[in-house]
Amino acid sequence: MKTIVNRMSMRFKFACVLLLPLLALAWFSAQGVMERRATVQEFDRLHALTQLAQRAGDAVHQMQLERGMTAGFLGSEGEAFGNRLSEQRPNTDAAAEAFQAQRDELDQALLTPAVTQQLNDIDTQWQRQAQMRQRVDDLEVAMDDALSHYTGINGRLMAFVGTLSHLTSEGDIARQLNAYEQLLEAKDLAGIERALLANAFSADGMAPAMLQRFLTLIGKEQAYLDSFRSLAGNEGREQLEQALSGPEIERLLARRELAISQAEEGGYGVSSEQWFEWQTVKIGRLKALEDRIVDAVVSETLVLRKAAQWALWQYAVIALAASLMAIIAAAVMVRAITQPLNQALTSIANRGNDLTQRLAIPGSDELSQLYLAFNESSAVTEALVADVKRNAQSVAVASNQMAQGNQDLAQRTEEQSASLVQTASSMEQITATVRQSAENAQQAQQMTGDVAHQAKEATQIASQAQQAMQLILQANEQVNSIVATIDNIAFQTNLLALNASVEAARAGEHGRGFAVVADEVRKLASRSAQEASQIRQLIDNNAAKISEGENLVSSTNDTLGRIAQGVEKMASVVDEMASATHEQSAGIEQINRAMAQLEDVTQQNAALVEEMAAASRSLDEQADDMTSKVSDYQVRDSSLADNRLALSHA
User: Fold this and answer.
1) Predicted confidence band at 645 (pLDDT cuts at 50, 70, 90)?
2) Which of 67-76, 378-387, 625-634 has the weakest average pLDDT?
3) Rounded Cα gap, residues 493 and 471, in angstroms
4) How far is CA 115 from the centre of its chain?
5) Which Gene Ontology MF annotations are present (predicted)?
6) Which of helix, strand or coil describes residue 192?
7) Under CATH, what is the fold of the domain 407-633?
8) How far, in Å, CA of 516 to CA of 503, rounded?
9) Percent composition of the chain: helix, strand, coil (DSSP 3-state, to 5)
10) Residue 619 predicted with pLDDT over 70
11) CA angle 575, 579, 584 (to 5 degrees)
C-alpha cells in the first residue's frame, strides 16, 4: 500500500484527499436546494389552491342563494321567487365559470390525486345542474331532491376546501383553512335553514320529519360556529360576534322560534320572501367574514411563497458560492504546494555544477523550511568552492601583476633616465627665464614710477584748472550784478522820462520841446533796458558753459586720481613679481637636489626587477594548478557568496 501511495504524484494525492469533502459539500448543497425547492412548490400549490378555494367559496355562496330561492319556489308551487330565481341563476353560472377558469389555469402537477378526484366529482355533479333547473321550473322534483342536489355540490366544494388544510405543513395556514371550512359549513347550513323555512313559510306548516331535520341543522350550524371560534383568532371571533349580533339577527331568532313552536298547527303568517331577505342579510355577513378570512389566507400564502423563493435563491447562491470558494481554495492550496515543489525538483535536476542557483522560498511552511535548508547547504558548498577559486584567481592575478610590475619597473627606469636628461635641460631654460623675468620686473618698476609721477602732475594741473573756472564763474556773477544795476537805472530813467512828459503836458505849449526831449530819453532808457537784458542772457550762457567746463575739469581730476591709484597698485604688483623671481631661484636649487635622489632610486629599482621575476614564475605555477581544479564549478563572486552565506545563517 505504501509503495502504491509513494508512486502517486502529489497533485493526485491532494485531489484524492479533497475529493470526498467537496462531494459531501455538493451533496448537502443539492439536498438543501431540493428541500427549499420542494417548499417553494408546496407554497405555489397552496397559493393556487387557496385562490381556487376562494372561487369555490364564491360558487358555494351563489349556489346557496339559488338553493334557497328554489326551495321557496317549490314550496309556493311556483307562486313566489320565480323572477328572483331567474335572476340568480346567471350569477350562479358566473361563479361556477370563474371557479372552472381558475381550475384550468392550475398546473396539473400541483394537484394531488385526491384533489383531482374531488374536482372531477364537482364537474360531474355540476353537469346535472341544467337538468335539475328544468325539473324545478316544471315543478317535477321534490324539494328534498332539489335541496340534496344543491347541498351535494356545496358539500363537494367545501370538502375540497377542507382537503387544502392537509396539503400544507404550515400550522397557521392549516388552522385558517380549517376555520374557513367551518365557516363555509356553518354558512351552508344557514342557507339550508333559509331554504327550509322559506318552504315552510310558503306552505304555512312544517312536517315532523322536516322539523326534526331543521333542529338537527340548527345544532350542526352551532357546532360549526363553535369550531370556527376555536380555530379563528381573536379578531376572527370578534368579527363573527359582530356579524351574529344586532336587531337583524334577533328578528331571525324570533322567526326561528315561531317556526319551531307552531310547526304542527301552522298559521305562521310570515312571508317567505321576507324571511328569505332577512336570512340573506345574515348569510351576507357570514360571506363578508368568509371573504376577509380567505383574502388573508391568500395574502399570507403569497408572502410565504415569496419568502420561500427568496430562501431558495439565497441558499442556492450561498451554496454555489461556498462550493466555488471551496473548489478554488482547494485548487489554490494544491497549486501552492505542488508548483513550488515541481519547480524545486526541476531546478535541482538541471543545475549540474552550477552552485549559484537557489530554490525560491514562498513562505514559512515545512516545504519552505526544506528549501531554506537546501539553500543553506548550497551556500556553504558554494562558499567553499568560491574560496578555492578565489585563491587560485588571487595567485594568478598576483603572479601576473608581478610580471607586469617587472616590465613596468624596467620601463620606468628607462623613463626616469630620460626624464633626468630632460629635467636638466629644462632647468637651464628655467634659469634663463627667471633672469629675464627679474630684468623685466626692474624695468616695469621704473616705468610705473614715472607714470605715477606724471599722474600726480596731471592731477595738480586739473586742480588748478578747476580753481580758474571757479574764478571765472565769480567774475560772471559780478558782471551780472552790474547789468542788473544798469537795468535798474534804465527803469528809473524811464520813470523820470514819463514824469517829465506828464509835466510837459501840463505846461502846454511851453512844454512841448521838453516833452520831445523826455520822449527821446524814454526811448534811450528802453534801449538801455533791452541791451542790459541781452547782456544778462549772454552772461547766463557763459555761466552755464563755465559750469559745464568746471564739471568736466572735476571729472578729469577724479579720473587722474584713479589712474594714479592704479599705477601705485601696479607698482606693488611689480614688487611682488620681483620677490617671486627670488623664490624661483630657491626652487631651482631644490629641484637639483631632487634630481640627485632620483638617480639613486633608479639604481635600486634595477635590483628589484630581478627578484620579482623569480617570484612571479613560482606564482604562475601555483595559479595554474588551483585553476585547473576549480574550473569545473560555477560560483558567484566571492564577496557575494560570503554575504549570502552570512544572510542564510542569520
Assistant:
1) very low
2) 625-634
3) 33
4) 58
5) transmembrane signaling receptor activity
6) helix
7) Helix Hairpins (1.10.287)
8) 12
9) 90, 0, 10
10) no
11) 145
